[in-house]
Each structure stands twice: as structure tokens, then as C-alpha cells.
Design a protein that fits this description.
This protein is an alpha/beta fold. 32% of the residues lie in helices and 18% in strands.
Length: 616
């Protein structure tokens, strides 16, 4: 079975009847190594062919679909058709010429990539064939052959109604596609080459450090082509393109691309409407990252990115509702009262519900049930667009969900609209293996129906790297000195400062590291110090010093975790601290450095995990 992107259920409503029949035939009749895209724009010019078909051996095909009947067509010539429409007589471009123009545009994009072109006698030509054709979904082959259409169509570039019937043999449909190109180069595309093709023709899938919206300009001649990890994989692309209106829940392991899909969704929605979009998360530093990734580079004022409690404060201020008195409420009591005042105001109509055309919630596992219920009420009922990203393995703040918890109980209609992402792309196999082995006792996978919380076991995408380091030293001061020396060496060898993070558990660690690094003139940014989101600048050339809690949702090529000999202490719950450590470890994309100066439950666990992963 071929892969159709977007999924048939999500795009069939906007298809013509002929497009639906063709999509069904190709999806069910073609083998599973075929990739099909329906009405997906290509290149920066956003050209819209009806179907793109890619096969690793036979090449790439562009199909234009016409539901015309013979009596619909009044006149034809080599460049235009005159047809009868519901709105009267209309002159349209020759569909075969239209398909050819799309195919040439794709060819031009792909020929810029030296890994996708041939060498030798055919130097500069694509390594695979490409073709194009027209599907006449309401005209049989016999009627076509007896009509004047044969004067303006080459017979082998046409697929007719009786050639895409449910009873049509799968081999015949495949052969009709292959006939659209006379060439067969006897080459098979690798997965990496397929991803490079997708990177060129679908620029919105590209991932860059700063923005999900950056694309190359038309005038660009020297492309900086990324590796496989800088583009959505096929499951992520199909999911992102298939997200329609309605409530959606994505359960995904750490590093599976949940936030990336959220960014794509933002991009799509800003192109189709002009009303406010709300993006919420729990912690301040993740909100700063999302804002910098989604909002700031693209100047999209209608996308509001906020951490939850900051958003609650905004609502109280906007609608002139008194905020809690800090002398009466302090700490957690202040936060609880802050949220309660928003909930009461919404229920009383003092703060209007349904004010956002779309709401997207990252790290939804950190939200209490009453918070989720409040957020669901803020979605415009006409669009009903709510996306919740969830990973119960990273639940650090909210109450652990009871077995009776359901999304329906908080107003989230998730039945039939949930997806599970198991592949971890962020971490190397070594980092993920050690992190999971360390925390597996509190990471036991759970199952449930699509209205319940599930805990998903992560699977590595297979990227290889170095084993994490566990460095034992005489004292915490020696740990700090060791990290300073090692990180300076990494920087001297070319690692940018902002690709390094030090993730710590207790405030005294942050104090010591920050002060000592400053004295050594090593640039360090204390992220989220004093709970201020403004002090987090992902692009500033400085090491990011950040708490384990605030590291959620972030990622860095190099992560250092000092002082694990202090974990867990006698006042901490082991299972909760293990989850916290797992979150900190899985922030590392390439290299993980852990230091300690005394033995503890966690040092013993990490030693055991390192030993087991090294043997595998």
C-alpha cells in the first residue's frame, strides 16, 4: 500500500470525485515503496500540481487530474482548451503543458544538488527519470481514441477512467505510470536521497536553527544542504500535513519532533487565516525558545507564544481583573489563585471564551486537568482547532494522571484523533540508550484507548555517536573546574558557546558555576534566573546554565550535568528525580558529560547503564 500525504481521510473532502477515485486506486494498488502527495505546493513559487508520485527505482511523476467529459470540451488546440463550466465558457491552459511545466520546475530544483545528478556522459542530469501526464477520470480509453483529443495528447501520457477502476490490476496501474517516462536508469534512491528530494521541493519541511519558516531564495546558487535530521521524516510530514480542524493529541517521546510539528502547524494556519493563534507551554525558557523560533523571525503578530502563568497574568490585566495580593498569597498559593481567578472570570463571562482560532499546547503533560479544561474553552468553536502535544514520561510538574483521567473529562475531544510518535531523532543511540536504561524502572510503557494518557517507550532513529562520560572528581569545586577546562577546549576546537548547556539540579550549583565561570571569563548565560524569560537568548554566544526543570523542551549538541552525587537526597522522591534526570540527559543531541564527586543511587545507576549499553 502506497503512502498518501496528506492522509486520504484528511484531504478527501477537498478532492474532486475523480481525484478521490485516483487517490484510492494509487494508495491501494501501488506498492508500499511509492510516495504520493496530493495538492502539496512545491518550491518557493508554491506551484500546485494535483499529484506527485515518487518511486525509488522508476522516478518522479507529476499528474494533472481532469474530471472533464467529452461534451464538456468545446474546442482544443496545442496550448489551450475551451471548456463548459458551471460559470459558463472558460479557456484553460492545456493540462499536459501544465503538468510538463511543473515537472520541469521540479527538475530545475533538484539539479542544483550534486548528490542527485549523474556524472560521466550524462553529467548534471538527474539520477532518476521524471515524467508527467494527465488523468481523464470521466473519459474511457476507447472514447478518447475516437475523439479529437488524440490530436493534442500523446496517447501514452494519458490515463483514462477505465484504467483506474477498482477491478484494474495493480500491475496495469503501475505500468501506466511507468509509461509516462521512456527512461529507466536502473538506479535505486537511498533514503537519504529521497529526503534530499523532499528538502528541495518542499521547503516548508526544512528545519533550521532559528526558524521553521526560513527557505532559500530563488536566486540562491550555492545551497547549504542539510543532513537527514534537518527535515521532517515521512511520518512527521504526513501527520503535519494531515492535521485538520478539531481536537488533536500527539503522544510523542522526547526528541520525536512534536515541537517541530507544532511549528509547521503555526505556519500553515497563518497562511489560511488572519485571526489570533495561541501557543502555550509550561516553562518560561521553552516559551522563549518557541517565540524566537516561530514568532520573532517571521514578524507574525497574530501568533501569541506564552508560558501558561504569564498568559493567565496577561488575561487578568487585559480584562481589568485584580491579580492576587502577593502579601496574602505566596509561592504555590499565589500561582494557584492566579489560575483560579482566570477560570472564575471565564466561567462568569468576564473573560470571553473562544477567542483564538487555534490553540496549540506544547508539553501538555505538565498541565493540571483544570488548566487543560480552561485552555479547551479558549478555542473558537467555529474552527475548533486544538493541538495538544504530550509525553507522560516527562511529566515533572503536574499531578500524575490517574487511570481514570481522560481527555474528554477536560473538554478535549481526542477520540479518533490521536497519534503516537515513538522514534527519537534528537539523541544519538548511545545517549538515548544510557538515559533510558537509567530511568527504565519509572518509564514502563502503558497503553490505553485514544482518549487516555499513555506512556510511550522511545525507539532510537539509529544515529551513532560517542558514549556519554561519567567523570568522578574529588569535590564539587573540582567538577566546576573540570567543566570549565573541558568546555574551553571544545570551544577552542570550534564548538560555538551557544551549543553547550550545563543543566543542574540545585540552586547552589548554579550559583557556584555562574560565579566561577564569570571569573574565568567564560561566557555564561544563566537561563531563567529570577524566573525572567527575557534573559534567554538562544543565539547569544554563551553557555546556557539552566535548571533541570527549565531544560524541558530544549536541546543542545553538548550537555553537561554536574553534581549527580547529590541526587536524590533524602527529601526527594526517587521516581520523580529519575524522570527529571532522564529529561536532563535527553537534552543532549551529540555529547553528554556527567560529573560527580561522591557515590549515590544515581551514580550507581548511570555506571550500570553505561556498562550495559557499552556491551550491546
Amino acid at each position: 500500500m502506497a503512502t498518501l500525504i496528506p492522509s486520504f481521510s484528511s484531504c478527501s473532502s477537498r478532492m474532486t470525485s475523480g481525484e478521490r477515485r485516483l487517490a484510492q486506486r494509487m494508495e491501494e494498488k501501488l506498492d508500499n515503496d511509492y510516495l504520493l502527495w496530493y495538492d502539496v505546493p512545491i518550491g518557493n513559487k508554491q506551484l500546485h500540481p494535483d499529484f506527485i508520485v515518487l518511486h525509488p527505482n522508476r522516478g518522479l511523476f507529476i499528474l494533472e487530474v481532469k474530471d472533464w467529459k467529452l461534451d464538456t470540451i468545446q474546442t482544443v488546440n496545442p496550448s489551450t482548451f475551451t471548456i463548459i463550466t458551471d460559470n459558463g465558457i472558460k479557456e484553460v491552459k492545456h493540462p499536459l503543458q501544465q503538468a510538463r511545466d511543473y515537472a520541469l520546475a521540479v527538475n530545475k530544483l533538484l539539479e542544483k544538488d550534486f548528490t542527485l545528478v549523474q556524472q560521466g556522459d550524462y553529467q548534471g542530469k538527474l539520477i532518476i527519470p521524471y515524467g508527467y501526464g494527465v488523468v481523464l477520470t470521466n473519459i474511457n480509453r476507447k472514447d478518447f481514441n475516437n475523439s479529437e483529443l488524440t490530436a493534442v495528447f500523446e496517447e501514452h501520457l494519458i490515463i483514462c477512467k477505465d484504467e483506474i477502476l477498482p477491478s484494474t490490476d495493480a500491475g496495469e496501474i503501475q505500468q501506466r505510470l511507468w509509461d509516462l517516462s521512456p527512461y529507466n536508469f536502473n538506479k535505486t534512491l537511498t533514503n537519504n536521497q529521497i529526503d534530499r528530494i523532499r528538502w528541495h521541493i518542499f521547503p516548508e519541511l526544512r528545519l533550521t536553527q532559528l526558524s521553521l519558516f526560513d527557505v532559500e531564495t530563488e536566486e540562491t546558487t550555492q545551497l547549504q544542504i542539510p543532513d537527514i535530521l534537518q527535515i521532517m521524516d515521512l511520518q512527521q510530514e504526513q501527520l503535519a500535513r494531515s492535521l485538520g480542524n478539531g481536537h488533536r493529541v500527539i503522544h510523542g517521546v522526547a526528541g520525536s519532533g512534536k515541537t517541530m510539528i507544532l511549528g509547521y502547524r503555526c505556519q500553515h494556519l497563518t497562511q489560511v487565516n488572519n485571526k489570533p493563534i495561541l501557543v502555550l507551554c509550561f516553562n518560561v525558557s521553552l516559551a522563549a525558545k518557541l517565540r524566537q523560533m516561530i514568532q520573532e523571525p517571521n514578524k507574525i503578530s497574530r501568533v501569541k507564544v506564552r508560558h501558561f502563568h504569564g498568559w493567565c497574568m496577561d488575561l487578568l490585566k487585559k480584562y481589568n481583573i485584580p491579580k492576587p495580593d502577593s502579601t496574602e498569597y505566596q509561592g504555590e498559593a499565589y500561582i494557584e489563585e492566579l489560575v483560579n481567578r482566570v477560570i472564575f472570570a471565564v466561567d462568569a463571562g468576564k473573560i470571553p471564551a473562544g477567542t483564538y482560532d487555534a490553540v496549540m499546547l506544547d508539553e501538555g503533560h505538565d498541565f493540571k486537568p483544570e488548566w487543560l479544561k480552561l485552555i479547551a474553552k479558549m478555542v473558537n468553536p467555529e474552527t475548533n482547532s486544538l493541538l495538544v502535544l504530550y509525553d507522560d514520561a516527562q511529566n515533572l510538574y503536574g499531578e500524575k494522571r490517574s487511570k481514570k483521567f481522560s481527555f474528554k473529562s477536560v473538554g478535549i475531544q481526542a477520540q479518533g484523533r490521536t497519534t503516537i510518535l515513538k522514534l527519537n531523532y534528537r539523541n544519538t543511540e548511545q545517549v538515548l540508550g544510557v538515559a533510558y536504561e537509567f530511568a527504565k524502572e519509572v518509564m514502563t510503557p502503558t497503553t490505553g484507548d485514544d482518549d487516555q494518557v499513555v506512556l510511550v517507550q522511545p525507539t532510537s532513529a539509529g544515529r551513532q555517536g560517542t558514549m556519554p562520560d561519567l567523570i568522578k572528581l574529588p569535590s564539587f569545586k573540582h567538577e566546576v573546574d573540570y567543566l570549565a577546562q573541558r568546555l574551553q577546549q571544545l570551544h577552542d576546537r570550534g564548538t560555538p558557546w551557544n551549543e553547550i548547556a550545563i543543566i543542574y539540579r540545585s540552586k547552589f550549583m548554579g550559583d557556584r558555576i555562574y560565579n566561577d565561570f564569570r571569573q574565568m571569563q567564560i561566557p555564561v548565560e544563566w537561563v531563567n534566573a529570577n524566573n525572567d524569560s527575557r534573559n534567554y537568548n538562544p543565539v547569544e554566544q554563551s553557555i546556557k546554565l539552566i535548571t533541570m526543570h527549565s531544560s524541558k523542551g530544549l536541546e543542545f549538541p553538548i550537555v553537561c550535568i554536574p553534581g549527580i552525587g547529590y541526587m536524590p537526597n533524602e527529601n526527594q522522591v526517587l521516581a520523580e528525580e529519575a524522570r527529571l534526570m532522564y529529561v536532563a540527559m535527553t537534552r543532549a543531541m551529540e555529547q553528554l558529560i556527567i560529573t560527580c564527586h561522591r557515590s549515590s543511587e544515581f551514580t550507581n545507576r548511570i555506571e550500570s547503564a553505561l556498562s550495559k549499553v557499552a556491551r550491546c
